[in-house]
Amino acid sequence: MANRSSQNEDQNFITREETKSKKAEIDAKIKENVVTSGTIFIIKFADILNANNSSPEVISHYMQRVLHSIFFIGYVSKPRVYPEEFIPEKILESFKEKFPGPFKDYLSHVPHQTPYSILLEFMSENKNCNEPKILMQELWEINKSLWKTDTNIGYQPVANDFTATVIAYSCYGDINGNNNVNSAYGSSISCKGRVPRRIMIHISVLQVWDLAISYAVCQEGDSPALVFPNQVCCKAYNFHCNSNCFLEVPPCAKCMKSFRGVKFNPPCENPDDDPTWPYGNCAENESLNKLLKGCQDLRSRILTEKNIQGKQMDIIEIETMFKKEKEEKLKKNLKNLLGSQNITLRKDNRKLQSFQPM
User: Fold this and answer.
1) Which of the two ends of the chain, N or C, has the fewest CB atoms closer than 10 A to its terminal CB?
2) pTM higher than 0.85, yes or no?
């Protein structure tokens, strides 16, 4: 009996060691992907800024934001990645000298956007964004260089953690770009890992998005949903690594439930098929947010569906309801998420410190 017990203990020890070894191997691969993705993104974005003949002030502004966003997301990832791991050794000291803010503030300040969202902002402001297909082609060329592929697994992407796969184009008017009052682009939440993604969605809801969008995301498909005027159109484009373009894709069921009245093109194929990603993840959220923030006329026409009493809320009532019923719970959730990742909050804990380029 003693021998059998000893054998069982030995076997359990071997099993535990094998499990520990396998976990360490998986963690190492995950970290390698995050580091490679961040390094490729930083170098490519610097090339884009320089190729555009941007001024030193513009280059500094955008590079600081991208660096801080990548450093922050790397730190809250599991396994953790530190800023110095993203920057090639030969240029590390130069980056620290040129962009000291991101290296100093990634532990105490939160980013407002993911790296790809910042890239999209730069591209849409500096390129011909009146015709979505032109911008999509330029973004496709960028994405090709951001996605590292492995020939051993059929050219499948193995490091694309900071690259958005979906871009949404929204306009207040004609989806074909004619007679638009306004238009805007947005990207999906481009970071991997449950905790980093939850953190970035919470930050967006609390500090970035128009409160109408924040309300819609927090409703999580429950009634009363947000209702847009029928002049609002939205089209999403999905990036495929092995294709030569962004392909038009329908919205998911979550977007259909959240944003009533929007003319999605192509329309939703499976309105009852809920995807696994969380509310707030889709590119449509950022795109419609920018559209609302850029057009006061549209914003004033936002309503909710009628509740069981037959009443609709207007934009002022939506804001009031969000602040009264949603905001404090979200702040508490975000505080706990950040605290679990050793992100230092202000002593009063009332307001997060947002990163601002120096």
Assistant:
1) N
2) yes
